[in-house]
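Q: C-alpha cells for this one, please.
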Amino acid sequence: MFRFKRFSLLFLLCLAVAAGSVAKSKPSKKDQVVTITTPQGVITLVLFDETPKHKANFLKLAGEGFYNGTTFHRVIENFMIQGGDPNSKNNNPNDDGMGNVDYLVLPEFNPNLKHVRGAVAAARTNNPEKASSGCQFYIVQNELGTPFLDMNYTVYGQTIAGLDVVDAIAKQPKDYRDRPLTDVKMTVTVETMKKKDITKKYGYVYPEMEKKVKKEKGEKEKVKS
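A: Here is the predicted structure, written as C-alpha cells:
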C-alpha cells in the first residue's frame, strides 16, 4: 500500500511538472512593440521569442532609456543601418562604433531567423564565440536581404513598419567611415500590445497565428468567388 501511494504521488508530481512545462511553452497572447523615433521618421519593430536573451536585453536597455540620444552612427545604402552605441552620445565622433555595455550576449543563431529586409540583428566584434554586442544593433536595408550574414550574427527581431525610414537613413550624406554628417539620433519606447492587435495594425503575422490567418483568408476568398 505504501509503495502504491508513493508511486501515485510520484506520478501526480510528474504530471504537475509536465503541465507546468506545457503552460510555460504556450505562446503569450501579448508582445512588446518597439518604436524608434528619428528625424527621418518612425521605425517599428517586434523582437523574437526564439532569441530570449537578446530580446530581454534589448527591452531592458530600452526600458532604462539607454538608447535615447544614441545615433545610427554607421549607414551603408543597399546594406544596413547600425546604431545603439553609447559613445554616439558624446561630442567625439571619432569613437562612434567602439562603445558597448560591460558585457556581451551569447549568440542565439536560428536557421529560421534570416537576414531578410528589415531584420534586426546584433552587431559584434570579431570574437571566437561570435558573441553579440550588449547594445549595438543593425537593421537590414537591402531589398534582397543579406543572407551571407546568416548564422554568423544573431537575428532577433523584424521591422514591421517604417522601412521607408530605414531607406531614408541609409541614404544620408556620410563621411569616409560611413558616419552620417548630421546625427541621426533616436528615441526608443516600448509598448505592450495584444498580438492580434499588432497583426491588425501592422500586418505582422506571428508564427503561431499563420494557420489561422491563412484559413480566414481562404474563407474570405470563397465568399468572394
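A few notes: The chain has one domain: 30-204. The chain has a mean pLDDT of 88.
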